[in-house]
Amino acid sequence: MKDILIVEDGRKERERLEKLFSAEGYAVVACESVAEAEKALEHEQFRLAVLDIGLGDKSGSHLFNTIKRTRSASFIIIFTGNPSVHLKQRFLDEGAVDYIVKASPEAQNDRFLGRVKEIIGEAESDSPEGIDLEYFLNHCLPEKSRNLFLDMNNNVPVCSCGSASYVVNFSGETQMPPEVTGRVICRQCGAELDPEIS
Q1: Mean pLDDT lowest for which of 18-22, 107-111, 128-132, 180-184?
Q2: Is 170 in a helix, a strand, or coil?
Q3: CA atoms 127, 131, 136, 141: torsion sign
Q4: Number of domains within the chain
Q5: DSSP category for residue 111
Q6: d(CA 116, CA 133)
Q7: Do 178 and 145 form a contact (C-beta atoms < 8 A)?
Q8: Range of the domain at 161
């Protein structure tokens, strides 16, 4: 799980936020379009999404609804140039944790960073690293071996914490295929899906 997804089509603002959060140790993915963000969300979950709503390819509202439906980010901040009180209330009512207007005092570095820390706390440095399980299944295993990692409906099983996002973390010892050892770890809580890959 990454810390923050930024979806902002203005290069200057996107780079400012990416630099601001990365400097505090947050794992950040910055996207300039809904399409790019949707690709990132296929492979990753986030603690926080910062969404512009006036994007070039599709409305940020579309992405907001997708993230809520798939639960691919724990919290969402709307970051927009639109100061509409009615729009702000709508997004807050629908589940956004904040609505920050660009160039407002709340959008300045110190205030924005402070708000992010209030919502998700400090950067998480202990999230498990490894190869995305779905990538591993589709690109590194013969088809007949994939079902060892899937449930009876051929889906990745849901962890007890509610996440279905895992990484394959290989042990530190030298690997000698076809004997490969490692662990499948939940990105959210660190629990193992299987004790070993062999």
Answers
A1: 128-132
A2: strand
A3: negative
A4: 2
A5: H
A6: 29
A7: no
A8: 131-194
